[in-house]
Amino acid sequence: MRMGRSTIQKLLILCLCASLLGFFMMIMNIGFNCQNGAKTKGNVDGLAKEINDDFKKKMKELEEKEKNINLAAKRLDFLQTTLRRQYPYAVDYISQIIDDDLPTIYAITPTYARHVQKAELTRISQTFLHIKNFHWIVVEDALEKSQLVSHFLEKSGLVYTHLNTKTPEHYQLGENDPSWLKPRGVEQRNLAIDWLLRHVDANKEPGVLYFADDDNTYDLQIFHEMRSTQTVSVWPVGIVGGLKFERPLLNAQGRVYAWYTAWKPERPFAIDMAGFAVNLQLLQQNSQARFDIRVPRGYIESSLLSKIVTMEDLEPKADLCTKVYVWHTRTEKPKMKQEDILLKQGKPSDPNVEV
């Protein structure tokens, strides 16, 4: 759908080749005529001038074609963005016709109701809109799907699946509990895995699974790199674990042998949820693998990965795990003192305005 630089370059090369072919044909014609004594020196000079003028004309035409192609590419980008917002499934279908051998990235995002929920989803969805063959699985931590998330997804312009399941009460965080006290998003990720294994045949539809939390920040490069995952690919994650970054450590052969982390480095896979992607076929072959909500803190990732891969089989990405393309950022919890005062006065903000 999108006309990139490589496409434009190919078109320009074809035009240039056509011009050069005509130029060489005229040169050959001159040589042939000269050998037969059919042209005088004056005629040859005239033909040379004619060739030179023709070549300049062709180059001017080529420059004009380049301008038109660039303009067409910009128009296509605009049309693609507009079409994606209005008819997301149509755009995905067209994209897969063009890139039918490109594995689909399935991004699983658990989410829960809070003041910044829509803001978080909006931010990462703007990144996801730039990714081809992308399917977003959003799972609400709720007994029922909310209107806010439903409306948001309908207008997102993305191909999506909307699911919901409530975290068991025993594992729910209290109002003032720190985020690390209990595991979050476990039941939601497992439900998404169930959906994928029921609805997608990885043998027929190659895919890569990624756990994209709604409070993270993503560079598009990470999606480009994970798409070629054959087993489980890994990379560094920024601003996590009390460090500037955590990452896999590689030996001289470029294989993962340990983890750069300050907290519990002895974990089988001492890695953040944002630091790995799984080949869907591998998950299909280990269809019972799920996250275990009962494991000690910090072992959630290991509870899944230990069932499907060994450390020796991990695929380092991000320039041998030396580049950071994803950050474990968090939006500050807003202070709602004035809103609370209005609530006590019976004059809350208009509930019909989604924020």
Structure commentary:
Helix content is 43%, strand content 16%. The strands form three sheets. The chain has a seven-stranded mixed β-sheet with strand order 3-2-1-4-10-6-11, sandwiched between helices. Helix 4 links the parallel strand 1 and strand 2. It has eleven helices and twelve strands. The chain has two domains: 82 residues; 239 residues, Spore Coat Polysaccharide Biosynthesis Protein SpsA, Chain A, CATH 3.90.550.10. The N terminus is likely disordered. With 355 residues, the protein is an alpha/beta fold.
Salient structural properties:
355 residues; alpha/beta; Spore Coat Polysaccharide Biosynthesis Protein SpsA, Chain A; 2 domains; three-stranded antiparallel β-sheet; 43% helix; 16% strand; disordered N terminus
Summarize it:
The protein has 355 residues and is an alpha/beta fold.
Average pLDDT for all residues: 84
Q: Summarize the helix and strand pattern as letters.
A: HHHEHEHEHEEHEEEEEHHEHEH
Query: What portion of residues belong to β-strands?
Result: 15-25%
| Strand arrangement, major sheet | 3-2-1-4-10-6-11
What is the rounded Rg?
28 Å
- Please identify, by name, the CATH architecture of the largest domain: Alpha-Beta Complex
* Number of domain modules: 2
Q: What's the total count of β strands?
A: 12
Helix content: 40-55%
CATH class of the largest domain, named Alpha Beta
User: How many angstroms does the end-to-end distance come to?
Assistant: 33 Å
Q: Main beta sheet: strand number and arrangement?
A: 7 strands, mixed
CATH topology of the largest domain: Spore Coat Polysaccharide Biosynthesis Protein SpsA, Chain A
Number of helical elements: 11
The gross shape turns out to be: globular
Structural class: alpha/beta
CATH superfamily annotation of the largest domain:
Spore Coat Polysaccharide Biosynthesis Protein SpsA, Chain A
Give unreliable regions as ranges: 1-5
Oligomer: single chain
